[in-house]
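Quick one: structure for this chain?
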Amino acid sequence: MEFFLIILLLISIIGLSNFINHFLPYIPVPLIQIVLGVSLAALPVGIHVELEPELFFVLFIAPLLFYDGKNVSRHELWKLRKPILMLALGLVFLTVLVIGYLIHWLIPSIPLSAAFALAAILSPTDVVAVGAISSRVKIPKTITHILEGEGLMNDASGLVAFKFAVAATVTGVFSLAEASVSFIWIALGGFLGGALLAYLIIQLKVYIRRLGMEDVTLHMLIQLLTPFVIFYVIEHFHLSGILSVVAAGIVHGIFKDREQSPAIQLQVVSKSTWTMVIFILNGLVFVLLGLQIPSVSKEIFESPLFNNYQVIIYIFIITAALLILRWLWIYLAWWIGWFMKEEKLTKPSLRYVAITTIAGVRGAVTLAGAFTIPYFLANGDVFPQRALIIFIAAGVILVTLVLASMVLPLLAKTDKGKTEEAKEDMENLAKLRSAESAINTLRELTTDENRSASVSIIANYNQIRNQLLFVSDEEAARLDFIETTTRMKVLDVESAVIEKLKFNNEIDRESLYLIEEHIHRMRVAVTNRTIYRGLLIWTVLKRGYYNLLRLIIHQKHDSIKKRILKGNKVVKLKVEMARAAIKYLRQTMTAENEIVNVKLIGEYNDMIVKFKLANNLTDSRHYMSVQRELRDKAFQAERDEIQRLYESGEITLEITREMRRHINIREAYWMEETSIHSH
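Got it. Here's what it folds into:
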């Protein structure tokens, strides 16, 4: 029961970290989770979590690498295989040698093999961090794909090298020739074995589907178990379980792209489920890091063998060495790739080299690997400096995370600047993206039952979107002229409908007077927007007055009943006129006037719906309820998009707050308007 409560507490902390990051997106989520973990460990509740090394690998590494392999761009991975391998293999092995000797030289109490193990576990970069960096900083697509491929492959190469180094430390036996042959055998065997097992599991799912079992839950359960089963089976044969889950992920990604309609629902569920699983696993790793920091720090700081400041200096020296070595190798790898005439691989600028160097944040894989270091050697002795190795690994993770969160925004600012023009561009971007997000959300939610309400709201957002797409004064003036001209022509069409009815004696004199007065008011409104606003206010007040009369006297007086009947006739005439206007707008639509015509069609459609609902209280309330629900979803889509733009660094905090304020004002206005109409 106690262990279950601890798990619930840790998951709650992960959720809290996401909540905090929503308001402080410039602070990386892993840093927040580490701080929360440290805070939890500092509380006098006696929480202590220990995991067996093998269990830690299976529980965290297997699903993380499987997910990365499943979502990597395989086409780009193959096309850019040369520079990726230079980074994922060349840089990893160079890091093991150079940083390993540096660690042993700095801290002689760490044996050379253990120093190699620490260097190996520090070599992989965090794929999640690479994705976050590519969304915040304008990096060419080719370079982004190289970083993603490196982040995936160096996890495998770094962890394989780490296991060899740990095994050499534990057994005290190491042969470079035997290790090289074993590495090739273990790596190839693990990769091919993982691919084969993944293929067999996929065929099993296909067979189950042919039996008529389309249960998404069953297929999703098989997919979730896949990385754990494959990792365990391959490791049982003493091959690389790490590479096996990478291969399994790639194979699943290939078959996912080829699957047809029966698997669409599974793909949707799979994406949502894996997003949650990976978020929880990544979060657990960093929360556990935070939980371990106080005890590990205490063990190090209280040991008479180490000077506290000296240990911290070790962390900074090792971090600096990692970054310098990475900077040199990235620059060299790019140059070699350039000499090899790699397609679309251009000579890098110093700024891009700096960005990709700082982007080499150490994360979950580094920490998970560090926790798997055994406590004892084969002869029963304690593993040398295990606590110090974990402390240094945790320190490097913290330093690289903090450094990336501080330096990368500064490097990104050179593209954005702080000019008024850049601010205006950000505002327009935020407005446009939020409107498009709302439109896309409404289209996904549109059904036959709510189509009228949805089209009405989409028309409003389309108007906002179209205004933002044509922001120049000349274009705005041109569209305004087209709109004025088109509105006048549409009013002529409406007048023609009335003239036809008048000619055929199908309209009474009073209705004719009311309609002609309406058309006259609209002509004035088109040519003079100020007068139009006054007329609009007068119309609303007059409508409210008649509604009040109807409410007070309950339609008992004949004069009021006649007025209502006359109003119903006028409404029917206006609906007929609106349909004629829509027909004209569709027939005369061209590329030049499409934006204006679509806008007017939306207005007339909305008018028809409101006219139809005006005299049916039940339908009207249902319509307003449906529209209110859709509006709520649209406003939330806007807020989500604004938050995403802020988290990706495309807009500033000031613009984010301003956009949220505008959304809140529009939402409050909409709620007030619907409240008035519903009563």
